[in-house]
Amino acid sequence: MTTSLIRRRSRALALVPTALFLGLAAFISADIAHAIVGGDPDGKRHPFVGIVAYQLTMGGPWYVPNGGNAVLVSPTVAVTAGHVLEIPLTRERLGVDPYARGVVFDPVPVDRNAPMDLAVFREVPASAVHVAKFVAWHPDLFASPDTPNDIGVLVFEQPVTGRPTARIAKPGLFDTLSSVYEPRMEIVGYGGTEFACCPPAGGGNRYSGTTALVDLTADVIITAALEEDQASAGPGDSGAAVLIDHNMLVGVLSSFDPPPDPDMLPFGRYNRTDSESACEFLSNYLPLRCSRIGY
Question: What is the CATH number of the domain that holds 99?
């Protein structure tokens, strides 16, 4: 199927605005499989993608759930989906707001074979957590389905050292590239539950895989597993990275769109990190230039 045909199919759906947000009960299951559906254990391929950790009380232990991702884009800043920060899983699942938040970059922070769901929080060593001194999300979070502004940042107390960072694409670059050829896209995340398609595997660990571009708007990227060897996002992959050129971040997972075929996995809806709106927000925390390429 060509990209143009894929895009026409997606536009016929009008990018259905009834997004099914990650972590909601409709998708949660105790039968855990790959974090990224159809993906593989990531190992050291994308060391800049981490899982959000929570400390419930001052001086208390740190925990990670089976989901919630953040992408290191500078030694002091990680980017995630805004709803990961605005509605933390501790509030959603435990009824309490966290005392502190941080990020763990270990590709396997928890037992890969332990069947868990998003309601379960597993302890991680405090030494593994890069603690955020503050978090922030876009002031117009979920302004509209077509302009979700579902983007946020964790700013660390201490710089993360000895670890590579992802690059953020300049506004207009991905549009230019995708108009000329179909860029190779990868998705990376720690999601903790999945669909009944794949062999069981523990959640809360970093998985990755290639995916297909279905549609591209000014603020949203839609991806899907259209080929047998391609991957899709699973619930718990909120904030998961979609990348081009291995380490160039172009979006973070916000929600799902229903697929045109009921036998297909839901399409991933990623908030673009290279949109003008995202760039203006991120430039408060990073030295970005937000003028569009080609304009």
Answer: 2.40.10.120
What burial class does residue 193 get, using C-beta atoms within 10 Å of its C-beta: 0-12 exposed, 13-18 middle, 19+ buried?
buried
Q: Give dist(CA 168, CA 16) in Å, integer.
A: 27
Report the pLDDT value the prediction gives residue 150, as an integer from 0 to 100.
Answer: 97
pLDDT band at 48 (very low <50, low <70, confident <90, very high): very high
DSSP 130: E
Q: What is the mean pLDDT of the chain?
A: 82
> If pLDDT is split at 50, 70 and 90, which confidence band does 92 have?
confident
Q: Chain-centre distance of CA 58, in angstroms?
A: 28
Residue 290 forms part of a structural domain: no
pLDDT at 116: 52
Judge whether 30 lies within some domain: yes
**Residue 135 belongs to what domain range?**
3-282
Residues 201 and 33: beta-carbon distance below 8 Å: yes
Percent helix / strand / coil, the chain, rounded to 5: 15, 30, 55
